[in-house]
Amino acid sequence: MTFAVLMFVLVGVGLTFTALAALVRIVRGPTILDRMVASDVLLTTVILALGADMVARQHTDSIPIMVAIAATATFATIVVARYVKRRNELEVSDSVGETEHV
Question: What domains appear along the chain, each with residue ranges and CATH number?
């Protein structure tokens, strides 16, 4: 087994472990922010796997796919952050309104 083959096996094992751990966190949660961070980790793992494939096969065909995945992950993170912010603001305003009526 050459050094390159050993490195690709180690990279594959590491990326597989990372993807499985992210999937577990996506399923178990407990909050939407935990799930969002885990989905970012999973998408980053996919990007790293595509990068490792490009190194192994010596091509650059996957770069547009990697950019699209990164842009999608960034946009999704912003959307979820705004959703959580609005939800928290509504909860705070509801709790303030309830204390005023008491």
Answer: 3-101 (1.10.287)
Question: What pLDDT, in 10s, does the model give residues 21-44?
Answer: 999 999 998 999 999 999 999 999
Contact criterion met (CB below 8 Å) for 47 and 76: no
10 CB-side CA count, 13 A: 7
pTM confidence score? 0.84
Contacts of 78 (CB under 8 A, 6+ apart): none
Helix axes 32-57, 3-28, angle to 10 degrees: 160
